[in-house]
Amino acid sequence: MASEALLDFDWDPMDTGEGIPFDVYARLRREQPISKTSTGAWFLAKHGDLIAAAKDVETFRASMREEGVIVPPDEMLISEIPEPRHGQVRKIVNSAVAAHRLGRVEDFTRELTNSLFDQAIARSKAGETVEMVQDIVMPVPTSVIAVLLGADAEDFELWGEWSDEIVQGDYPRFNRNHRGEGLAGAHPEFTKYVDEMIAARKADPDPPDDFTTRLLRTKVDGIELSDVELRTLLIFLLVSGNETTRHLISNLLYRLAHQEGLLASLQADPSLIPVAVEECLRLDSVVINLVRTVLHDTVFKGHAMKEGDRIFFGVASANRDEDLFEAPDEFRLDRPKPKAHAAFGGGPHVCPGASLARLEARVVLETAVERLAEIRLEPDFSWEKVPVFWANGPARLPATLIER
Question: Does the residue 286 lie in any domain?
């Protein structure tokens, strides 16, 4: 018989300002793995339930926005586009970030990372404090995604600033607290920059062979993407290619500084570096929750859900599911299936940038392991989460870097 599984205590899945509530997640996994919170939203706490729901894209659609906000079809983020069009647009995105296309990107990433460490190590030797998030981490994903898309890599600081403003804001509360409607109203500077990229390629008789140019020449169902669709897709890629990867790399550097013996273990056996990336993805989930909307009345694993209900896929909880991970709260380099986590979601809408994120994180970690003897966080350092309810990463990492 279907039930609503209403929790017997008040808890809001969006309340992560004081940190990720791992104790609540553990309780839910034990007692109410599928529950309805006091806010009226559903929460999936276990790995198996999350993956099952992620595969059911006809019932659960991505929605990180406020309830009731109507988004024009040509401004839908890729995760919100319904099937079958999602799969068609997804193929276009995969052409830019698929693993087999990332060879030249790795060389660029390694050269950039070494240059950033050169500067950071020199500053440490001069007695200055290095703020690793700003000085080392942020330039990597912002520059890499710019190179892939054909934007000016020297503008990486703009991507970081604009991404933060969009992700930390409440776009797109149409007609509320914004300068206008849609992306152009929410962030006119960002949209103007991307619109100019598109216009420049349209006007160029021999445009550069980059992803933006390929987008202009691509048809979905025999129809070219509109300028607004092009803009939305490019902004989505510029933001998503920066935001979550930045937190992953920051979490790795924090682990390297804070996790006793980790740096020495990776120096002794560098082949464990990809495993360390996966374990960080699992234990320090960059995405805490994925938010979905129930598209029609349904019964999921015995629970009656109504059309319009909000449902949280508890990624950070699923990644510590005792049924799947031994000693789930420990950082371990000997896990038999290091990629079994749900850090990139699951099903048809699994993160298309997973391969790129792994590449960037691996290259930064390889460089740090090769070049550093120690990362000394400032004595008064206190870990502070970035101010985004669904995201997990340190807002800052002030440190001194000791060269190997």
Answer: yes
How does DSSP classify residue 100? G
**Residue 3 falls within a domain, yes or no?**
no
Residues 6+ apart with CB under 8 A from 143: 108, 112, 153, 156
* 102, 359 Cβ separation under 8 angstroms: yes
At 134 the three-state DSSP class reads: helix
Separation of alpha carbons 230 and 371, rounded Å: 41
pLDDT of residue 80: 62
Q: Is 50 among the domain residues?
A: yes
Alpha-carbon distance values, 281 to 14, 160, 196, 221, 336 (Å) = 20, 21, 36, 36, 15
Instruction: Flag whether pLDDT at 81 surpasses 70.
Output: no
Q: Give pTM, 2 decimals.
A: 0.88
Residue 268 amino acid letter: A
Residue 15 lies in a domain: no
- Whether the Cβ atoms of residue 217 and residue 180 lie closer than 8 Å to each other: no
> In whole angstroms, what is the distance from residue 132 CA to residue 140 CA?
12
Going 186 to 188 to 193 to 194, the CA torsion angle's sign is positive
Whole domain around residue 344: which residue ranges? 22-403
Domain holding 129: CATH number?
A: 1.10.630.10
- Residue 221 burial by Cβ neighbours in a 10 Å radius (0-12, 13-18, 19+): exposed
For residues 155 and 319, what is the distance between their CA atoms, to the nearest angstrom?
A: 35
User: Band of the pLDDT at 150, cuts 50, 70, 90?
Assistant: confident
Which of 288, 261, 291, 282 minimizes the C-alpha distance to 358?
A: 282
Phi, psi of 169 (to 5 degrees): -90, -160
Q: Are 149 and 211 in contact (CB under 8 A)?
A: yes
